[in-house]
Amino acid sequence: MSIDIETARRVAKLARIRVEEERLPALAQELSGILTFMEQLNEVDVTGIEPMVSVTPMRLKRRADVVTDGNIQAQVLANAPDAREGFFAVPKVVE
């Protein structure tokens, strides 16, 4: 698939990046190269291959999913400009 200069300009606008006019042809060529590489990857037969998370087999440590307050309320509120009754106090914004 080939990307033209107008498409490269639109991609840059959507990505919110500023690309000078003279750089647009090079950007279009780079994007075309990326899409060509992706097309090559699509040709690889991966049937029966499990997705990998890591190159080394690892088991994640399991722990009980228990809701706690972390037992660090005082540390969390230490830098608060205003704390009352164990909570952050903020000014009223809706009347």
UniProtKB/TrEMBL annotation:
A GO term for molecular function: ATP binding
Gene Ontology BP annotations: glutaminyl-tRNAGln biosynthesis via transamidation; regulation of translational fidelity; translation
Domain of life: Bacteria
InterPro entries per record: Asp/Glu-ADT_sf_sub_c (IPR036113), GatC (IPR003837)
Keyword hit for Nucleus: no
Catalytic activity: L-aspartyl-tRNA(Asn) + L-glutamine + ATP + H2O = L-asparaginyl-tRNA(Asn) + L-glutamate + ADP + phosphate + 2 H(+); L-glutamyl-tRNA(Gln) + L-glutamine + ATP + H2O = L-glutaminyl-tRNA(Gln) + L-glutamate + ADP + phosphate + H(+)
Keywords linked to the UniProt accession: ATP-binding, Ligase, Nucleotide-binding, Protein biosynthesis
Top-tier EC class: ligase
UniProt function note: Allows the formation of correctly charged Asn-tRNA(Asn) or Gln-tRNA(Gln) through the transamidation of misacylated Asp-tRNA(Asn) or Glu-tRNA(Gln) in organisms which lack either or both of asparaginyl-tRNA or glutaminyl-tRNA synthetases. The reaction takes place in the presence of glutamine and ATP through an activated phospho-Asp-tRNA(Asn) or phospho-Glu-tRNA(Gln).
Recorded family membership: Belongs to the GatC family.
SUBUNIT field: Heterotrimer of A, B and C subunits.
Name of the protein in its database record: Aspartyl/glutamyl-tRNA(Asn/Gln) amidotransferase subunit C
Organism: Neotabrizicola shimadae
Lineage, uppermost ranks: Bacteria, Pseudomonadati, Pseudomonadota, Alphaproteobacteria, Rhodobacterales
Name of encoding gene: gatC
